[in-house]
Amino acid sequence: VAEDGAPVILPSGAERTGLAALPVRALRLSGPVLTLLRRFGLTRIGQLYSIDRKALSRRFQSREAVEAVMLRLDQALGARAEPFAPLRAPPDYAARLPCPEPLSDSAGISEGLSRLTEELCAKLSAHGLGAQGFVFYALRSDGETRSLTVNMARPVRKPAHVLRLFRERLDRIDPGFGIDLLLLEALRTAPMEAGSQPLSADLAMTITDLGMLSALADRIQARLGEARVMIIQPEARHPPDMAERRVPFTGQPTEDTPPPPDTLPGLRPIRMLDRPEPIDAVAEVPDGPPLRFVWRRVVRRVVKADGPERIAPEWWAHLPTPGSGVQAMPRARDYYRVEDEHGHRYWIFREGLYDDRRGSHPDWFMQGLLA
């Protein structure tokens, strides 16, 4: 159908019409079979539709030729499945280890993997590259193949790190009656600097040490599975409960991520609730901090309070519709950092003001827990 090079997509159910005018050679038949078809005047695919298969067998006097024609015709019309084995491009960097004697124990497999890892990482280092994935193949004596794949957040080429990730799941390799060949391939290679930043020994520095975070994420994902490591990215939103989102850790900062808010340490909670929880609060003055509040059925007396910090609503996202007036706009929030008599600190807010002419009293909510 697309012999001239132009892409063609036949509608569903239009295969017979679309293929009828094509020559029979479009069915990918062998030369002798095409010669037989031409001898009987069958030059177009549509001519084969109305021919009885038994009659075709009598004409051809060759069961193999008839089966080949019917097979290709059924496959072209979608009446018979034709699975395709995709061609896999050879890896740019790989290492192989033939086994003089079949390996049948985990210690031998681990030792072979260690040698392959050293060899392959040396090749990557010589070309100034790292890899974000490795595939380990074990080719068994019975013709079966077992494989393990590990993926990294950033390109790596340290043999110890790669080997550690594989050993998390190496017991999944079943040697069967023995393994004749071990193969290790590098995936998604990329340039890598000759010297990487050493891992920080200071726990406070791990937040900005991408190398250390990536190594930790790799180990967690090797043990628990892909996409198990999430990070929190800031969002350009006013409500604190909408100002961040969880995304998979990739080891690379994204360009569209807004900078974190410029706040001093301690002004934001170490734990943010998934959604604000209502509390019953009693304040000394209408627009002041509460003297006490009830959260999760426990009365808490406030001994210290700091605030308010007013966060305005996102007016552009809540433009009033005709007839709705000011009621369509969310109310402003006044946030307070309070401490109870037991030393526990909370981040609470009052939604609305007493003089904002909304007709109802403001509501109090628990937003998070402070350090």
Radius of gyration: 34 Å
Portion in strands:
25-35%
Tell me, what's the shape?
flat
Task: Describe the main β-sheet briefly.
Answer: 6 strands, antiparallel, barrel
Flag low-confidence runs. Answer: 196-208
Helix content: 10-25%
Q: Terminal Cα separation, in Å? A: 69 Å
Identify the strand order in the major beta sheet: 7-8-9-10-11-12
Oligomeric state of the chains in view: single chain
Number of strands: 12
Order of helices and strands: HHHHEHEEHEHEEEEEEEE
Judged by helices, strands and strand pairing, the structural class is: alpha+beta
Number of continuous helical runs:
7
Description of the molecule:
Among the domains are: 16-77; 94-191, 2-Layer Sandwich (Dna Ligase, domain 1); 271-369, no CATH class. Helix 5 (106-126) packs antiparallel against helix 6 and helix 6 (159-167) packs parallel to helix 7. Strand 8 (290-295) and strand 9 (298-311) form a beta hairpin. The protein is 22% helix and 30% strand. The chain has 7 helices and 12 strands. The model is unreliable at 196-208 (pLDDT under 50). The relative contact order is 0.08. It has helices at residues 15-19, 31-39, 53-60, 63-77, 106-126, 159-167, 210-224, and strands at 94-103, 129-140, 145-156, 179-191, 230-234, 244-248, 271-283, 290-295, 298-311, 333-340, 345-351, 363-369. It has 371 residues and is an alpha+beta fold. The longest helix is centred in the N-terminal third of the chain and has 21 residues, at 106-126. The protein has a 6-stranded antiparallel beta barrel with strand order 7-8-9-10-11-12.
